[in-house]
Design goal:
This protein is of the alpha/beta class. The protein has one domain: Vaccinia Virus protein VP39 (Rossmann fold, 3-Layer(aba) Sandwich). Helices cover 23% and strands 32% of the residues.
């Protein structure tokens, strides 16, 4: 578990290749001094990622509309988006809905076929019992067989793309801190066990905590030296997977 202090665009590429990259860059949605969009990093990240890897980026619709061309020009292909649903929301405008969600977009390298990208999509044990019948398998259904199958009560099903996870409101050490539980889902999905996760904008170090819990290696970068040390202390306080468990 390593967290560097400095500019991620300079430090992170030389430490790859990564099995997965997480990025929570400034969205550029406000006038706050720290909320300024940073350009150039998507191209640096692509060169540091293995062909089988994924880049997961947090953002708002506004930020992705503003930066979409940069991701495309840097050699990234869009895979899917998730919605993180928060228990509370915020709004800087009295004439708009209170925003209680953020987007997370998965990208992969444009020179790698999707079939070669590591994906272990989690399931949830909350499927309702039902029988599904079809005469022909639609081409978009992937590996689901034609004919019929039965789903038992409480059986597994793919996790939904809208993921409700409580944020760290009242406990956060960083203004844009993401919950460990949410980051752990992404890490287990796109990084193989023992693989290396690159955290491009480390902030509070929550991704490092998630990597410890998931049994993945972690290397992050944070430009604020005070926050970087707080993140290191936080990560160091968490036992790695399997430690402290009696045989």
């Amino acid at each position: 578990m390593t967290l560097l202090t400095g500019d991620s665009a300079l430090l992170m590429p030389r430490c790859g290749p990564y099995d997965m990259i997480l990025a929570d860059p400034p969205y550029g949605d406000t006038a706050l001094a720290w909320d300024r969009r940073i350009s150039g990093w998507p191209a640096k990240a692509r060169g540091a990622l293995k062909p089988s890897g994924s880049l997961w980026v947090f953002g708002s619709l506004r930020s992705f509309l503003a930066t979409g061309a940069e991701f495309r020009d840097a050699g990234w292909k869009y895979a899917q988006e998730l919605v993180w649903e928060k228990q509370n929301g915020s709004s800087f405008h009295a004439d708009r809905f209170r925003r209680a969600h953020e987007l997370i977009v998965q990208f992969y390298r444009d020179d790698a076929p999707w079939s070669c990208v590591y994906n272990d999509v989690p399931t949830t044990p909350d499927a309702r019992g039902r029988t599904v019948r079809r005469k022909h398998r639609p081409p978009h259904m992937g590996l689901i067989d034609a004919g019929h199958y039965v789903s038992e009560d409480g059986g597994p099903r793919l996790m939904r793309s809208v993921i409700p996870v409580r944020n760290a409101h009242g406990r956060a050490i960083h203004p844009t801190e993401k919950p460990v539980a949410l980051l752990e889902i992404l890490i287990r999905t796109s990084c193989p066990p023992g693989g290396l996760v690159g955290d491009w904008f480390a902030g509070s170090g929550a991704a490092g905590v998630a990597c410890r819990l998931a049994g993945r290696r972690y290397l992050g970068s944070e430009i604020d030296p005070v926050m970087a040390q707080r993140a290191r202390d936080r990560i160091a306080s968490v036992l790695p997977l399997g430690e402290g468990i009696a045989p």
